[in-house]
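Worked example 4.2. Below are the chains of a multi-component assembly; read each line carefully before continuing.
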Amino acid sequence: MNLFNIPSNELLQHLINGLTLGAIYSLIALGYTMVYGILKFINFAHGEILMAGTYAGYYFYYFLYDPSKGAAYTIGIFIAALVIAMIASAILGVVIEKVAYKPLRKAPRLAPLLSAIGVSIILANLAALFFGTKSKKFEYPFNNSSMDIGGSSITPNQLMILAVGLIMMAGLKLFVDRTRLGKAMRATSQNQPVAALMGINVNLIISLTFAIGSALAAVAGVLIALEYKVYPTMGTMAGLKAFIAAVVGGIGNISGAMLGGIILGLLETFGVVILGIPQGLKDTIAFSVLILILLLRPSGILMKNIREKV
Amino acid sequence: MKKLLAVLFSLMLLSFVACGKDSDVIESGKTIKIGFLGPMTGDAGNYGKLMSQSVKIAIEEFNAAGGAEGFNAELIVEDTEGKVEKGNPAIEKLAGVDKVFGIVGAVFSSVSLAVAPKAEAAKIVMISPSSTHKDLPGKGKFIFRDVMSDALQAVVFGKYLAKVDNVKTVAILYVKNDYSQGLAMDFKAQYEKEGGKVVAVETALQGDKDFKTQLTKIKGANPEALYVPNYVAEIAQILEQAKQLGLKTKIYSADGFSNPQIFELAGDLSNGVIYTQAAEQPASQNKINFEAKYQAKWGEKPDAFSLNAYDGAKIILNAIKETSSKGMSGVLKVDRDKVRDFVAKTKDYDGASGKITFTADGDLVANIGIYTVENKQFKQLKMFKLDGEKLAEIK
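Applying the procedure described above to all two chains together yields the following structure tokens:
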């Protein structure tokens, strides 16, 4: 096969790169989309919640890090660090909602949005102040030498990103579709006052939504930290891209966020290769896609509701 | 008698004019301000930190030796984060508010190029310890650098790869800033002139963390070597991702690679990278002394740029000392043009980084070293100079 004059092993390599990038976007996009589904508002501090959780995981990991204790130990503390990162992000997400968004729930829609942007700036600057602005290396918990598949290579970390992404997304889908809490969540997203009348604790559901979305972002944060290091602005661009992914897939729609993330990851990789877009303009691909989607199909690829709710 | 009076009078007038126009006056009790312009925070923060620490030492030494006519120097550090948009307000502050007499900096070429016109207009001698872009010395007569030019670095490396290392095909991956792009283009032109073949040229943006797409394309082009004339934050990512993608070519880089932070970020992957930098002259006593002093004061080793920063600061301070004079009521008169002229005359200055001589347009006269990394240690392999068009090894 020799599509667009690119050898097949190279295409496969781009596919692997694009899918891992996409899986990361999807994981982060879930947080945006869940919050939007319930509160009809974009949590622009999401990327910084990711960053904060990653730092928590990073410091926990390095507090216990000791290569002399063997591979099993390292993987053990890495998993523990992942859990710590999830917990830290979840708590932060819930607290931010209580402090910065809840008081504004009945305010005009612009107010919580501005509050979110404010929170995001505060978090990024606090991180710069406390943790310093230098990139910190998050050592792989395993030997990350690449493996050869058909002339392309895939690293254990890429496999882990794909696997963890898949498990998390499947888990979330099952939770939302099959459990009572998930049902309550869906009900809240459809009609808050009526859900409250049915005996659903709306505040609890909203907190839960923030907790789950933030925890998923922390997972994504730790996974990208392994590849791209930890630094205070690590959540900003990733968050923005994930937001686009959520819009592309249809914001408020969980499957849409997953699909949007993967599509965006693949577009960014193949757009450069096949369309010959200069690599320096890679980020413009995502934003162009956003504009196109907003023009042609404003409610996203997987349309959730055709009519705007009144 | 009348004639004599007239002459005296006109001399007085002249000196008044000179006072008003060309020399600044520092009141007694005030300090001579010197600026440092560089990234103190951000991914490149380590460069600025190491260099500003050198300037601090130079200033302390200057003050300990009695300053200029008893006036002490004071350092004003302005953080650019390595970005042009932060560099512009920083130079405005140094020139307009602090009214500095000299600047060590800026660190990155993009920033130096952006701030140079302002330094020139305000008659501030600027010596960059690390901006290697070939266009910088042409930016004005107050603009100097004590680091070698990229043009020289790139030309020598182009010849070296083609003729000495006998590399037939090269891929280039550079970041879109003045430093990387300048090096990449000059290298490409020279290397192709020598008969080498550039099989892929890929670009990225400063601050990018993911280079897999570019590296996958480069792997497809199957070059013998990869040239990455970037800074350590990007090079570390490139080294790691090249390994992940199974790209097994030799990696070549430039002096941006010479920051010890690379060992922290890239670890063992930095071993075997070959890069150019100003040739290390036989370890002078000056260098040994300075490194010991630096280590004792800051608890870390200075990088090559820090040696340049130290020398630059010393040259500026010395010029101020030699050209300034005590004025009436205890003020210090500093003539900016005289300071500039004194700096420009620098020849065979015996600094920590080696012998420093400026060319007519303020560039450094330099030999080029080819370096590598062994066991996380920088090591010079060979030394070259350009003998007309020919590459001549210095033994």
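Take a moment to check your reading of the output against the notes. Chain A has a mean pLDDT of 88. Chain A touches chain B through 32 residues (CB under 8 Å).
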